[in-house]
Amino acid sequence: MNPVRYLMLPWWIAQLPTGAKAFCDNPVIGSPTLNRWGLHVARVRLAAALARSRRQRLHSLIDSKDRTAFEHDGFVLKQNYLAPEDFATLRREVFGRRAPAREMLQGDTITRRIALDPAALKEMPAVARLLSTPEWRGLMRYIGSFDSEPIAYVQTILARVNDGTPDPQTALHTDTFHPTVKAWFFLTDVAEDEGPFVYVPGSHRMTPERLAWEKRQSILARTGLDRLSSRGSLRIDAEELESLGLSAPKAFAVPANTLVVADTSGFHARGPSPNPSTRVEIFSYGRRNPFLPWAGLDALSLPGIAERRASLAWAVRDRFPSLLGQPWRNVAARTADAPAIDATDRTA
Description:
Elements: H1 3-14, H2 32-36, H3 39-58, H4 64-73, E1 75-78, H5 84-95, E2 99-106, E3 109-115, H6 118-123, H7 125-132, H8 134-144, E4 151-159, E5 181-186, E6 197-199, H9 208-220, H10 227-230, E7 250-251, E8 258-263, E9 268-270, E10 277-286, H11 309-319, H12 321-324, E11 329-334
Antiparallel strand pairs: 1-8, 2-3, 2-11, 3-4, 4-10, 5-8, 5-10, 6-7, 6-9
Helix pairs in contact: 3-8, 3-9
């Protein structure tokens, strides 16, 4: 073994009880031999068991109907989430505000994010109320399996902004090997052909068929799969779903004022958009070390820190781009529904 690899070995091993997922970056996590012996599957099974345990302690945060829907499907869907007058107020706040924004180009699609930091929430009290409601907080915590404050943005998806390669997010995939939570509160109507959120119902469950698939992928991941799969976001062809006992993907073509909260360890994607389209939403996500047995005790959820994490993360990447990478380009102040200006040279 190369001497440098000997020196790095303790670091690679130390990543095993964390959320580290990239097969290509860690020769231990990505070892075909170790994964043939069951390393990856062991991490998946343990993370899933701990998530179940934490959710049992958080079950009172959501009602039984939502728990049943989540356990069956892996997501909770709520249409007409806000009262019409409250939703109209929230839309006016979001679409009427120019704010510092970041954009990332992937293929032919731009994702724009405006951080919901203290300044934003002060100017958008209806958005602040949405994020602080017990139902929103409960769904994010129960599905994410942690009593932690998620990160939130105003997010805009601008599809078909160029004639480049297809958006890689349109391929069915998992975000990582362990349960995580994402929420989309749609501020615009989403048609079937305008890049809807897509989810495979029930794919959040680690069944024997799913675990066997995970094992096969982990053995091939370092050299035999695509780049994003090798980085730990495993892709799957729709034709494979039946062999895992799963149904066809569900596309969420939904009206504005619809909330979807999902465990994105299940297979999901962004639906295709044959023509240019714009989707605007309040987007929130949460992810912690999946091997923690406790649900709370999150220092990053403390007031004064929690609401600043998005801006701080961007600032750290700006400071150390060669070390951490920085796919999020600063595009100055703009509104959530502003058209794309520059759709080149920002591929993550």
